[in-house]
Write a structure and sequence with these properties.
mainly alpha, two-stranded antiparallel sheet, 38% helix, rod-shaped, binds zinc ion
């Protein structure tokens, strides 16, 4: 059973709330999207974009 985060009603896990139809997105039983290296992948992408921009600026100026 899961408790609805909006209205507090208990409903079966994996389903949506029968009262307000809200699905459980983030909760204590759900894995965090920033846990399995996603945050580091985003940081690496940011560094790559920064390096490309730095190279383009260094070449054109
Ligand atoms: Zn609800």
């Amino acid at each position: 059973m899961t408790t609805c985060g909006l209205c507090g009603r208990a409903y079966p896990a994996g389903d949506h709330c029968p009262d307000c139809a809200m699905t459980a997105g983030f909760g204590p039983n759900r894995p965090s999207p920033f846990r399995s290296g996603t945050l580091w992948a985003m940081a690496a992408g940011l560094v790559v974009v920064y390096a490309i921009t730095l190279t383009v600026v260094a070449i054109t100026s």
